[in-house]
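Below is a filled-in request sheet from our internal design queue. Each sheet records the structural input a requester submitted and the sequence that came back. We keep these sheets so that new team members can see what a complete request looks like end to end.

REQUESTER: design group, bay 2
PRIORITY: normal
MODE: inverse folding
CHAIN LENGTH: 420
BACKBONE (tokenized):
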């Protein structure tokens, strides 16, 4: 497994430079010459329709998607790769659907740039895939449900084709049903079977890209990501994607890389949890030469409201933002004075209207509260069950009880994807 390097802009060396281009609008699809590399934009985890501590983020998402469209108009990629979690829930609100409709029209019709888009674990595969055959005629290639045979979307230059394989998120049980394989017990075996099927069919020596939605083992998590599995079998090894020149992934919200840079998460469009405050959100511009070698540039996106943490006494914070800071940012306020304040949130919002949360570190939690709290990097759901069961009964649960718990929770999560 490769070493993750979050935030690094150039993933590996390439014999050609990345050049910024003059911004254009309403141009025909790009035609690449032999001297010019193929170019793709990689983005993921838009989570359209998301609510964050009671704040609707649709306008914030529209703001950064405007910038993505500007980058596409400037860079003129051969395609935009959108690696899942387009929506935040299976049944998105109307304003999220309208925003996606607007973005797709401006890219595919206005700029005539194709898109390859897959469903993530937050999306309803059937709803996202509605109208896929009609959309394909406009250059929007949407894959919601996993097909038995994954056909590539082809792009080409004078050096030949690039095969782009869209692999939507699918539970292992779903992969078993589609492929007719009873031996696929977890995400690793399921993804390996999918990749093996692709590798057996595509022409050797030609360039290839996989667009997927998965949790690569060792990846840096964030608090806003929904777990793919509760039984500890939700990860996939980076080496699984070795047959491809580049793997464009979604699911993890921090930009990061592995396998020498050939496997990469572009990260989410916005900061969707307090753990993402240090992240630099953006999209990835990939340039691929005739040999499949790639150079990658991270292009930052500027949020309408940044997510920041401010710390100090209430009186200090009420003095207002420092030079260069915006009073309209989304804020987590960490109060250091060891006393209770009457209507602290109301007073803070008079200065900072978008305060989301107040932290009071001096109010220490009890050992029991900490012990049973579920958090990233802490106890898993199964570990919490075992700890709670033993604390309650004096003995650990049996293997059969643990299996029943895992199966029940996974069934509930599948139902929640349609009920959200």
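RETURNED SEQUENCE:
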């Amino acid at each position: 497994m490769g070493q993750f390097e979050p935030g690094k802009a150039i993933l590996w060396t390439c014999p050609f430079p990345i050049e910024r281009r003059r911004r254009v609008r309403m141009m025909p699809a790009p035609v690449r010459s032999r001297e010019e590399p193929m170019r793709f934009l990689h983005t993921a985890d838009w989570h359209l329709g998301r609510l964050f501590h009671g704040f609707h983020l649709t306008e914030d998402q529209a703001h950064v998607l405007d910038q993505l469209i500007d980058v596409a108009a400037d860079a003129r990629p051969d395609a935009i790769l959108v690696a899942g979690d387009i929506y935040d829930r299976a049944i998105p609100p109307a304003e999220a659907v309208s925003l996606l409709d607007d973005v797709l029209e401006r890219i595919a019709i206005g700029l005539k740039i194709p898109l390859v888009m897959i469903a993530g674990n937050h999306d309803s595969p059937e709803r996202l895939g509605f109208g896929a055959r009609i959309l394909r005629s406009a250059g929007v290639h949407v894959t919601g449900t996993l097909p038995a045979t994954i056909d590539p979307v082809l792009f080409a230059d004078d050096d030949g084709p690039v095969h782009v394989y869209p692999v939507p998120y699918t539970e292992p049980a779903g992969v078993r049903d589609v492929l007719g394989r009873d031996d696929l017990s977890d995400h690793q075996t399921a993804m390996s079977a999918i990749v093996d099927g692709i590798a057996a069919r595509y022409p050797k020596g030609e360039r290839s890209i996989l667009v997927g939605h998965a949790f690569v083992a060792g990846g840096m998590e964030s608090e806003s990501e929904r777990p793919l599995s509760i039984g500890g079998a939700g990860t996939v090894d980076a080496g699984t994607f070795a047959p491809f020149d580049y793997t464009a992934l979604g699911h993890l919200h921090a930009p990061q890389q592995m396998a020498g840079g050939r496997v990469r998460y572009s990260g989410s469009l916005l900061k969707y949890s307090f753990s993402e405050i240090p992240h630099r959100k953006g999209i990835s511009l990939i340039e691929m030469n005739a040999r499949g070698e790639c150079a990658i540039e991270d292009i930052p996106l500027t949020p309408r409201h940044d997510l920041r943490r401010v710390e100090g006494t209430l009186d200090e914070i009420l003095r207002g933002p420092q030079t260069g800071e915006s009073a309209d940012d989304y804020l987590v306020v960490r109060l250091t004075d060891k006393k209770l304040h009457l209507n602290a949130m109301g007073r803070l919002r008079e200065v900072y209207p978008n305060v989301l949360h107040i932290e009071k570190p001096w109010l220490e939690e009890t050992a029991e509260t900490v012990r049973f709290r579920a958090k990233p990097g802490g106890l898993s759901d199964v570990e919490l069950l075992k700890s709670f069961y033993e604390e309650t009964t004096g003995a650990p649960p049996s293997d059969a009880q643990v299996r029943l718990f895992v199966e029940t929770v996974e069934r509930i999560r599948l139902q929640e994807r349609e009920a959200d």
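SHEET NOTES:
- The first strand starts at residue 38 and ends at 43.
- Residues 1-27, 366-377 have pLDDT under 50 and may be disordered.
FILED BY: M.R.
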